[in-house]
Write a structure and sequence with these properties.
Elements (H helix, E strand, L loop, with lengths): L14 H28 L32 H18 L5 H19 L2 H10 L10 H21 L1 H19 L3 H9 L3 H7 L3
Helix pairs in contact: 1-3, 1-5, 2-3, 2-5, 2-6, 3-5, 5-6
Length: 204
C-alpha cells in the first residue's frame, strides 16, 4: 500500500502568499515620494541647492544652505511630525497594519511639503518668522524632511507614548537652546507671531 504523499499546495498563510500585500505599502510610499518630487519641481523648486553643492547635513540655520541640503537642524522638527502622526494614526486607524499607518504619515507629510512650498506659505514664513530670506526648500531637502518624519514615526512606534512624549519635550527644549526655534514655536509664529519672540530668536 502506497503511503499518502504530502500536499504540495502551499498553505494560504505562508510567506510567498504574503509578499504582494507586504510590498504594497512600501511601493505606495515610493510612489508618493516620486510624485512629491515631481510636483515640487513643477512648483518651481530646485532639485538641489543653487550653489551646486550636495551635502547630507548643514548645521547652520543662518547659512544659505539651510533648507537646501538633505538634512539640517529643522529636520528634527520633522522627526517630531512623525511622533505626532504616529499618535494620531494609532488613535484614528488602530486596526491598520503598521506599514499602512506609516504610509498614511508619509502621505500627510508629503502633502505638507507641497503646501509649505507654495508662495503663500513661503511669504508667511518670511514675514512672520526668523526666515526672512527663505525662498522655499529644494526638492532634496523636502524629501529629507519626509524621510525624517518617517523615522520619527518608527521611533515613536518603538518607544510608546510615554517615552515619545518625553523625547518630544527633550527635542523641543534642545532646539530652543540650539537654534532658538522648535516645532511648537514655529507653528505659533506662523499662526500668531509675537514681535518679542521674533526679536529673541534673532538675538536682539
Amino acid at each position: 500500500m502506497t503511503a499518502p504523499q504530502p500536499s504540495r499546495t502551499p498553505p494560504s498563510g505562508n510567506a510567498a502568499s504574503r509578499i504582494p500585500g507586504a510590498l504594497a505599502p512600501w511601493l505606495m510610499m515610493s510612489l508618493i515620494l516620486a510624485a512629491t518630487a515631481i510636483e515640487l519641481h513643477y512648483q518651481g523648486r530646485l532639485w538641489r541647492s543653487a550653489s551646486g553643492r550636495l551635502l547630507l547635513w548643514v548645521g547652520d540655520v543662518w547659512s544659505s544652505e539651510n533648507s537646501q541640503q538633505l538634512f539640517d537642524p529643522y529636520s528634527f522638527t520633522h522627526v517630531l511630525h512623525g511622533f505626532v502622526l504616529c499618535g494620531l494614526a494609532a488613535w484614528a486607524v488602530p486596526r491598520w497594519p503598521l506599514a499602512w499607518r506609516l504610509c498614511l504619515a508619509i502621505a500627510l507629510e508629503a502633502a505638507w511639503e507641497i503646501i509649505e512650498n507654495t508662495p503663500f506659505i513661503i511669504d508667511r514664513y518670511r514675514q512672520a518668522t526668523i526666515a526672512a530670506g527663505y525662498e522655499g526648500d529644494t526638492v532634496i531637502n523636502s524629501l529629507g524632511d519626509v524621510l525624517a518624519c518617517g523615522a520619527g514615526f518608527l521611533i515613536a512606534q518603538r518607544l510608546g507614548w510615554r517615552w515619545s512624549l518625553a523625547v518630544f519635550i527633550a527635542i523641543e527644549l534642545a532646539l530652543l537652546i540650539w537654534i532658538r526655534d522648535s516645532l511648537l514655536l514655529n507653528v505659533l509664529m506662523l499662526v500668531y507671531p509675537f514681535p518679542q519672540v521674533k526679536a529673541w530668536q534673532m538675538g536682539s
